[in-house]
Design brief:
6-stranded mixed β-sheet; Rossmann fold; 442 residues
Length: 442
């Protein structure tokens, strides 16, 4: 058994629940060696099922052929193959590399359940490059911990069994077994930061400090230990059941340094890399320290941090609402624009909207201003604005509350209120409205 096999098997043993290993394979030399070693392990391992995942990013004219090559190679080694194609936003502010990685991981997570570990081929030199990139960004210990050997990934795990091996060792293995691999021409593009470090900076450093990759790998390990200690210190301040919401009472009366550390830990728990110093100051001064009426928000890449009722909310960036949007509700389920979720009809007796009303034209609209509704048991009509204020809904939710109209009359406000005219009587067959909105975080 070689050192690569031992490292992979050790990674598989770290989580007893693992029954499937998904190999991330790009066709390059690193992942080809990982694939080759796993194929050998599969022959003698009965309790782990190995399969392969390759992703076509569509960033090169030959990418479709590369995906075919990956499938052919996996078939030759007797491994189950899964392919995925993604669209990469090439104008993202954090760069093409980061956008491609996010798109790739999002696609791969669809194939990962709680019994699956994703195996990737990052190695010691990748770790050194990552640490330098994080250092140049001004990251703290969480960022400098760089690439962890094992971590949570979607519903399952991700493991990097080659982190203790250098690129030269991997290429040596590939040559020994006469493996053939793909060369991505983008790897020579030094306009990309990682490639620039790899070809222009690190070789110069290694001429003076030959063990650079090994020593920086130790630095990453030390930072990971420090990060774990910080996480353990602040873990009790995070609501594990609702990670996207942070109660600001947790930082009241604490020093600025501790406040920043706790907030970073909360964001890191949500897979959000540490904020820049400028962003952190904006969050503290322009979001946390201001009144709700100002509707404070901080945009962080694809996310937003918003404040309401002494809590921070982490949301996917909310698109602007389309004016005068109207959606026909036909059938039992009505899909709403992202991230508003969906509405469902639930069979009930004596509550909800009377069944016969659903035979008429039902549409979903959103606030335009001036809406009123007469609710059973309340005198006079109620202004929608006042009702939503009484409900204490976050300001970003109020304009996204679905309004149910029947024949152009306001019949219901989401799953909150039903208009008296449409309200089911005690013995009436009815449909209650259920609103699912996981991405609005309230």
């Amino acid at each position: 058994m070689n050192q690569f096999s031992q490292s992979i098997e050790a990674a598989l043993l770290k989580q007893p629940s693992i029954t499937r290993a998904l190999i991330a394979y790009s066709g390059g030399v690193d992942s080809h060696v990982l694939l080759h070693v796993c194929a050998k392990i599969q022959v003698v391992t009965k309790n782990i099922r190995f399969s392969v995942i390759s992703v076509d990013h569509g960033l090169h004219e030959a990418s479709a052929r590369w995906l075919e090559y990956c499938e052919k190679t996996a078939d030759e080694l007797g491994l189950e193959f899964k392919g995925a194609k993604v669209c990469v936003d090439t104008i993202k502010q954090d760069g093409v590399e980061s956008a491609a990685r996010k798109a790739r991981y999002a696609a791969i997570k669809e194939f990962v359940d709680e019994h699956t570990v994703l195996l990737t081929a990052q190695h010691q030199d990748d770790q050194a490059e990552t640490l330098l990139l994080q250092l140049f960004r001004g990251c703290g210990v969480q960022g400098l911990a760089s690439i962890p050997p094992m971590a949570q990934f979607g519903s399952g795990f991700i493991a990097r069994p080659f982190l203790n091996f250098g690129r030269e060792e991997i290429v040596e293995y590939a040559n020994k077994f006469k493996l053939k691999w793909l060369e991505d021409p983008s790897n020579t593009d030094i306009s990309l930061n990682r490639n620039y470090l790899r070809s222009e900076v690190i070789p110069v450093i290694k001429k003076r400090w030959g063990a650079f990759s090994k020593t920086t790998s130790r630095t990453a390990e030390h930072c990971a230990e420090a990060s774990s200690l910080l996480a353990a210190t602040y873990e009790h301040l995070i609501d594990k059941e609702n990670l996207a919401v942070f109660n600001l009472q947790a930082i009241e009366g604490k020093s600025g340094e501790v406040q920043r550390a706790i907030i970073r830990h909360w964001l890191f728990s949500n897979d959000i890399n540490a904020l820049s110093t400028k962003q952190m100051e904006q969050l503290l001064n322009n979001v946390i320290a201001v009144d709700d009426e100002k509707q404070p928000v901080l945009k962080v890449t694809d996310y937003e941090v918003r404040r309401f009722k002494n809590r921070l909310y982490l949301l996917k960036a909310l698109p602007e609402m389309m004016p005068n949007l109207s959606i026909e509700w036909m059938g039992d389920v009505c899909q709403l624009p992202e991230p508003i979720g969906e509405l469902k009809k639930v069979v009930r007796v004596g509550c909800g909207v009377k069944k016969e009303c659903w035979d008429r034209r039902v549409t979903i609209k959103f606030r335009n201003g001036g809406e009123n509704i007469k609710i059973l048991g309340r005198s006079g009509t109620q202004k929608l604005k006042n009702l939503l204020n009484q409900k204490s809904l976050p300001f970003w939710v109020r304009e996204r509350v679905p309004l149910v109209y029947i024949d152009d009359k306001l019949a219901a406000i989401a799953n909150f209120w039903v208009a008296e005219e449409f309200q089911a009587g005690e013995d009436d067959n009815a449909f209650e409205i259920s609103w699912s909105h996981p991405d609005l975080s309230f």
